[in-house]
Design a protein that fits this description.
Helices cover 45% and strands 12% of the residues. By secondary structure, the protein is an alpha/beta fold. The strands form three sheets. Strands 3-1-2-4 form a four-stranded mixed β-sheet. Helix 3 (76-93) runs parallel beside helix 6 and helix 13 crosses helix 15. It is elongated and about 75 Å long.
Length: 345
């Protein structure tokens, strides 16, 4: 059955003309004169518009009597997504790094093809994705472990040398120096009481660099090892008061100065979060789409979890595609309260 009544035919045709990879998997276009259906990014020459009808998926096109294009292989789009999702799960579950050839074999793809496929879907290579996970684990461990060596093993490294080869560079200095802190920008901080608990508010001269529940000066020193960490005092009082106000009334749209950095994709997700009006929500899929990579849904969720500024960058407005809450770095109970205060049920 044709689904032209549920698919925006003009938008679908525009996707085909643009050969938009982001639209692959959302629908297929079937050509009446050839009896073939294709995915939007198919590189074949475009047929005339009047000869094309659109279907939700390959199954509907097959049921209507069309056959799959041998050039763009539209039936493999779903298989590709499953393979990437499985690869991500394998990377996250692995106690030791997986070789890329091994990873590709596990999901049933040739290495070169799967490398390109994974990067297109997530925005990074499998190796970069694994390094990012290790870096996050190391940062968390260095915050909570008493010694650097203990943190290295807690993060999953087989030996300190492996840590120094990989994550050490990503931290910007040696692990010991990262643990001690160092010279650099001045960060002022204060602990403020809110109805949701004690809130750490920290800022450089440029703007807020850390807003978090259940953290204090020690965690701040680990996160900003090159900075001079000093009490906020009067210089931070007004900004801290505005942040507290955003916790108590998250429906207020406060334009606060920020000083945060992340990967290009993370920053795109954080910007997308800031554009969500109070009282509204967005799915991780929608956020990934706004950030320019609709398939990087898991990465969008990870970017929300890496948000440096609780409430100020409103990651509590993000949720899963099925309408369920999803996670929250500071506890789902806080997320529920913040959303309720904005009128989200």
């Amino acid at each position: 059955m044709s689904t032209t009544d549920t698919i925006n035919a003009d938008a679908a045709w525009a996707a085909f003309i643009a050969r938009d990879r982001h639209s692959d998997g959302r629908f297929v276009g079937a050509v009446k004169t050839t009896g073939i259906y294709c995915k939007p990014s198919c590189p074949a020459r475009h047929p005339k518009r009047e000869n094309v009808v659109f279907y939700r998926d390959p199954a509907e096109a097959l049921a209507a009597g069309y056959r799959a294009c041998l050039r763009c292989k539209p039936d493999e789009v779903g298989r590709d997504r499953v393979a990437v999702a499985r690869a991500v799960a394998l990377i996250e579950a692995a106690e030791t790094p997986l070789g890329f050839t091994e990873l590709a074999a596990e999901v049933g793809y040739a290495p070169h093809h799967f490398h390109r496929l994974f990067k297109r879907a997530t925005g990074v290579t499998p190796a970069a994705y694994a390094r990012g996970l290790r870096a996050q684990a190391a940062a968390h461990a260095l915050t909570n472990e008493a010694t650097v060596t203990g943190a290295i093993y807690e993060a999953g490294y087989s030996a300190p040398s492996r840590f120094y080869e990989g994550v050490g560079k990503r931290l910007g200095m040696t692990p010991s120096a990262w643990k001690r802190g160092g010279a650099g920008a001045t960060i002022r901080w204060v602990l403020a009481e809110t109805s949701l608990g004690t809130l750490l508010v920290a800022a450089t001269d440029k703007g807020l660099c850390r807003v978090s529940f259940d953290e204090g000066e020690a965690a701040l020193r680990v996160r900003f090892p090159h900075a001079e960490i000093v009490p906020g005092g009067a210089a931070l009082a007004d900004l801290a008061a505005q942040v507290v106000a955003s916790v108590e009334s998250p429906d207020r749209d406060l334009d606060l100065p920020l000083d945060v950095q992340g990967t290009a994709f993370q920053e795109a997700i954080w910007q997308a979060l800031r554009q969500i009006p109070p009282g509204e929500t967005r799915t991780y899929t929608e956020l990934a789409t706004v950030a320019g990579n609709p398939r990087a849904v898991r990465a969008a969720g990870t970017a929300c979890g890496a948000n440096h500024l609780a409430v100020v960058i409103p990651c509590h407005r993000a949720q899963r595609s099925d309408g369920t809450m999803g996670g929250y770095a500071y506890g789902v109970d806080r997320k529920i309260i913040l959303r309720n205060r904005e009128g989200v049920e």
